[in-house]
Amino acid sequence: MSRMKTKSLIAVVTTLLTSYLLTIPVLAQDGSNESVVNTGSNLDYLFITFAITWIIFFGYLYYIAQKQKTLSEEIDDIKKNK
What we know:
Elements (H helix, E strand, L loop, with lengths): L2 H26 L14 H39 L1
């Protein structure tokens, strides 16, 4: 598998995983309409989703920085060979 396809696959998997994790608090609700709502029960899921989202964001930022560095080096090589 080519490197670009691998990166695309990783991006799709992380997007799907994040989407799934965002739905966990909704799935964890029991559907009852009680007047007293325990808001603390889903905060763990919210924090985990928040943390994973930021980890994915900074991972993508790192990936883009590395890609930019590689492209810049390739441009410099092309300019030298001209």
